C-alpha cells in the first residue's frame, strides 16, 4: 500500500458525529438527509431491511477479550426471514479502520473496540474491515447518497460507533451471572436456562450458537424505526435458522487451565463433561 494512498484515505475520513466523550472535528457540517422527507419508502430515512442483529462472541480457544466480558462480533442487517444481506458495495471496502476513526476524532471508539471488538485470530483491524465490508455496507441509511456533502468513509465511523454503543447496552456476562450462570468446565447448563435469563433482560428471544457443546455466540435482534444512526430500536424475537446449541451447554471459562478446574470438591458427576471431547 503506497503512502499516497494511505494519506488520501486518511484525509477522506471526515464529517462524522463522534460518541460522547470523543472530540468531533467535523461537527460544523450538517448531517440530516431526512429533514424534508416524509416518505417511509426513502431508504435513507427508514432503514431497510428494518431488522438488525447484534452479535457477541465468547472466545475461549484461543481466548480473546476480557475474562469477564463477551465481545462484539458484528452488527448485521437482517431480512424478515432471518437471512443476511452481505457485501453490498465492493467500492466501499475500506482499510485502515483505526486511522479512519482516529482522524474523525473518535479516539474513545477506538479504545472501546480494542478492548471489546477483538480478533481471536488475525488483527483487530482485519476483523473490523471484514465486518464493515460484509455487513456495514448493507445498511441503507449509510449509503453515500444519504449524506449531504458526503466525504469518503464517514459512514463507516457511524457504523462502528453504533455497534459499540449498542453492545454496551447488552451486558451479556452480567445478565448471565445475575442468573447464576457463570463459566465452568465441570457444570453444564440447560439451554432453556440461558435462553430464559437473556430473554428476561433483553425482552425478546435471543439466538444462541455453539461449537459442539460450548456456548460461543449470541445474537440480539432488533427492529429499527428510522435510521441506523438516530432511529428507535425495539427488541425483536429471534428468527431464521441461526440457533444450533444442544440441550445441555458448556459455558467454558476464559484464561484458565483445564486441570485447574477439576478437583474432588468441584466435580459434579451429573453434569460433568470431558472438555477434550467438546
UniProtKB/TrEMBL annotation:
Listed A to Z, the keywords are: Disulfide bond, Lyase, Signal
E.C. designation(s): 4.6.1.19
Q: What GO terms in the biological process aspect are recorded for it?
A: RNA catabolic process
**CDD domains linked to this entry:** RNase_T2_euk
One function term, GO molecular function aspect: RNA binding
Q: Name one GO cellular component term.
A: extracellular region
Q: Which InterPro entries match?
A: Ribonuclease_T2_eukaryotic, RNase_T2-like, RNase_T2-like_sf, RNase_T2_His_AS_1
Signal peptide (UniProt feature, chain positions) = 1-27
By sequence similarity, the record places it as follows:
Belongs to the RNase T2 family.
User: Could you tell me what this protein is called?
Assistant: Ribonuclease T2 (RNase T2)
Q: Which organism is it from?
A: Fusarium torreyae
Its taxonomic placement starts with: Eukaryota, Fungi, Dikarya, Ascomycota, Pezizomycotina
Give the encoding gene's name. RBT7_1
Amino acid at each position: 500500500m503506497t503512502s499516497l494512498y494511505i494519506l488520501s484515505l486518511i484525509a477522506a475520513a471526515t464529517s462524522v458525529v463522534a460518541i460522547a466523550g470523543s472530540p468531533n472535528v467535523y461537527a460544523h457540517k450538517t448531517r440530516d438527509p431526512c429533514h424534508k422527507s416524509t416518505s417511509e419508502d426513502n431508504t435513507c430515512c427508514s432503514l431497510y431491511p428494518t431488522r438488525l442483529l447484534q452479535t457477541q462472541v465468547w472466545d475461549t480457544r484461543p481466548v480473546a477479550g476480557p475474562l469477564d466480558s463477551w465481545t462484539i462480533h458484528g452488527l448485521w442487517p437482517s431480512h424478515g426471514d432471518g437471512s443476511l444481506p452481505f457485501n453490498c458495495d465492493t467500492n466501499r471496502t475500506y482499510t485502515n479502520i483505526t486511522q479512519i476513526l482516529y482522524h474523525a476524532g473518535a479516539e474513545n471508539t477506538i479504545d472501546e473496540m480494542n478492548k471489546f471488538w477483538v480478533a481471536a485470530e488475525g488483527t483487530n483491524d482485519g476483523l473490523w474491515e471484514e465486518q464493515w465490508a460484509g455487513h456495514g455496507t448493507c445498511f441503507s441509511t449509510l449509503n453515500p447518497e444519504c449524506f449531504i456533502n458526503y466525504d469518503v468513509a464517514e459512514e463507516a465511523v457511524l457504523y462502528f460507533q453504533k455497534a459499540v454503543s449498542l453492545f454496551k447496552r447488552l451486558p451479556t456476562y452480567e445478565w448471565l451471572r445475575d442468573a447464576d450462570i457463570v463459566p465452568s468446565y465441570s457444570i453444564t447448563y440447560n439451554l432453556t436456562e440461558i435462553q430464559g435469563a437473556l430473554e428476561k433482560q433483553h425482552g425478546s428471544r435471543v439466538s444462541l450458537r455453539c461449537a459442539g457443546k460450548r456456548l460461543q455466540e449470541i445474537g440480539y435482534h432488533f427492529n429499527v424505526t428510522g435510521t441506523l444512526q438516530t432511529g428507535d430500536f425495539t427488541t425483536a424475537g429471534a428468527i431464521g435458522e441461526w440457533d444450533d446449541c444442544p440441550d445441555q451447554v458448556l459455558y467454558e471459562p476464559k484464561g484458565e487451565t483445564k486441570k485447574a478446574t477439576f478437583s474432588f470438591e468441584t466435580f459434579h458427576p451429573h453434569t460433568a463433561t470431558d472438555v477434550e471431547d467438546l
